[in-house]
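Supplementary material to the annual report.
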Amino acid sequence: MKEATTLNSYRTGPDERGHFGIFGGRYVAETLMPLILELDQAYEAAKADPAFQGELKALHATYTGRPSPLYFAERLSAHLGGAKIYLKREELNHTGSHKINNCLGQILLARRMGKTRIIAETGAGQHGVASATVCARFGYPCEVYMGATDVERQKPNVFRMELLGAEVHPVTSGNGTLKDAMNEAMRDWVTNVETTYYMIGTAAGPHPYPSMVRDFQSVIGNETREQIMAVEGRLPDMIIAAVGGGSNAIGIFHPFLDDPDVRIVGVEAGGHGMQVYNGHAASLNGGKPGVLHGNRTYLLQDDDGQILEGHSISAGLDYPGIGPEHSWLSDTGRVTYVPATDQEALDAFQTLTKVEGIIPALESAHAVAEAIKRAPQMAKDEIIVVNLSGRGDKDVFTVGKILGVDL
Amino acid sequence: MSSLPVTRIDTRLAKLKAEGRAALVTFVTAGDPDTETSLSILKALPGAGADIIEFGMPFSDPMAEGPPIQAADIRALAAGQTMVKTLEQVRAFRAGDNETPIVLMGYYNPIYIYGVERFVADAKAAGVDGLIVVDLPPEEDEELCLPAIRAGISFIRLATPTSDDKRLPVLLRNSSGFVYYVSVLGVTGVKSAAAGDVAAAVARIKAHTPLPVMVGFGVKTGEQAAAIAAHADGVVVGSALVNAVRDSLDDGKATAATVPAVTSLVADLASGVRRGRA
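Predicted assembly:
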C-alpha cells in the first residue's frame, strides 16, 4: 500500500472507525465496546471544548513546566562534526518524561466522564509514575499493572508510584514485561468497566486511544515548530525520536508530517541485533501486520500468529507492537524507521551524559544513537532535532549493572 | 437473515428444543495438555453428555481469559499446538461424529496470520460449524464474520451485561447459531452470576432475537448448571473443564486420569442441565 504519491495530507487520519490505512481499528471484547464508543464521543466533545483545552494548557504551564526547552547541543554537535543537533527537552517535564502530557489530558477526560477509578499499564514505569502523579493531583485511586521483570529492573519507579499512592500489581504471566502488563490491565478493565478509566500510556490500543494520545502528545511537535522557527528561522532538516509504542515519536512527528523537506526518522529497539530471533523489539523492521491489544499494527510474532516477547535493554521499548499510525507512516514511506541496538543505545547514553551533562533515559538514548550516526554525514548548516523524551535517573541501576558497577 | 448459514448447531438445538431441555456447551482448549490427549478428550465429550463443543484455538495473549484458560493456552502452545493441528483434530473428530456441532473459539490474530479465506475454507472442510472470536466486535464484521457466513459457518456473538437495548441489535445483526451470554463483567473462570440476573438478561436478549441463548462464565458444577438451565437455552462450561485437565496432570504430562477427569465432570454437568427444567 504505497499511498504516498496520492495523499494530500498525512495529518487527516484516522477515519471515523479509527483506521490509518489498514491499521488501527477497534478489536476488543464486546464487554468493552459500549464504553469504547462512549469514550470516542466524550473525547471528541472535550477536544472541541475551549474550557477543556484551556484547563489542560494552564496545567501544562504551571504543573508540567511547559513549554519544554529546545536546547542546542553545541558540544555534541561539535563532537560529531556535522549537523547542528537540538534536543527537545521533554525529560525536564514534571515526572521526568513526555508521559505527563498524555496523562494530564486523560485524567481531565476521565473526570469529565464521571469515572472514579484509574488503571494503567507501564513498562519502564514512566507512564505508571505519570499516571500515579495525576491521580494524586486529582484525588483518584490508581492501580498500575507492571510486568514482574520490569518491577525488578525499574525499582526506583515502583517506589515512586507507591509514594504517590498508587497500587502496583506485578504481572507474572508471559515474560513479565509491558505486553503482559497490558493484557492484565485489559482484564481489569473488562471486569470493572463501569467505574474504571483505562489510562493507556502510548499511542496504541483500540480507537480512539491512538489518535487521542497523539493529540495530547502533539504539544511536543507544536512547540518544537515555534521554537526552531524562533532560533533558526526555518524548519529542521531531520527529526529523530525513539519508538516503542510510539507516543513521544508521534507527538513530535505529527505537526511536521506535511512538511516534505523535513525528514523524519523513528528509532526502534534493535536489542541484541535484528539477526537474533526474538532478540529485539523492532516491530516495523522485524515484524508483520497482525491484531493485538485492540488494533491492527506491525507485531513481533511467529508463523502461527503467536506473539513474541521481544527484547530491549530499555523496559519502555520492550513491546512487541507499535502504534498503528506508525505502521501506516512506515508503509506510506513518509517516516523512515531504523533499529538501534542495546549497545548503541548504551554508548549514546554515556556520550550524551559526558558531553552535554544530560543523562537520557535508555529509551531516548536510542534516538540519540541515531543522531550520532546521522550527524557526521550531514552538512554543518543542517539541523537535527532529537526528542529527548525522558531522563535517565531511573536507568542508572540497569546501566551500572551492565558496566559492572555494584550500586 | 435468509442468507445466514444453517449448520449442525441449528439442527442440534432444534432437536433439544423439541425434547424440552437445555443444551450443555463444553469448552476445552485444543492441544491441552498435548495433541493426542486433546483429541481423546474431544472424541469423548459427546458420549459424556456434551451437546455442543467449543474448541479453543490457543493464543499467547488471551486478553479476556482468567487464569484457568490462560494456563490451558500456555500448556497447549508449549506442547506445540498450531492452527493446522487444531483443524486436523476437528477433521479427525468428524470422521467418527457427524452430528455434534463444533465451534472454534479464540482470538483473531492466529486466524489473520493463517489467512482469513484459507481459514474459513479449511475450517468448513474440516467440519467446523461456528466461530466465536472474542476480539472481533460487529464494527469489524468485514474482517472475518462476513467471510465466515459466506463459507457457511455461523458467527456467534458474545452478549454481555453492558449490551443494552441500543447495542443488542448491532451485535445481533450478523449473528447466527446461538447467542453466548457472558453473564458477568470480567474474564472467564472467576465470578459467577446470580440465577435471577441471568433470567432477566436472557429475557431481554430474547426480545431482540429468535436465536437460542446460551449462558456462561463461572459455571463450575452440575448444581450451578441446573440453576442456569432453568432460565436459558443452554449452559457453557469452560474454565472448570480445563482445570480438571490441569488437576489430572503429573509434572505437566497427561495421565490415565486426564480424559476421565474431564468426562466425569461433563457427565455431572449434563445431568445438572437435564435436571434444570425438570
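The longest helix of chain A spans residues 33-47.
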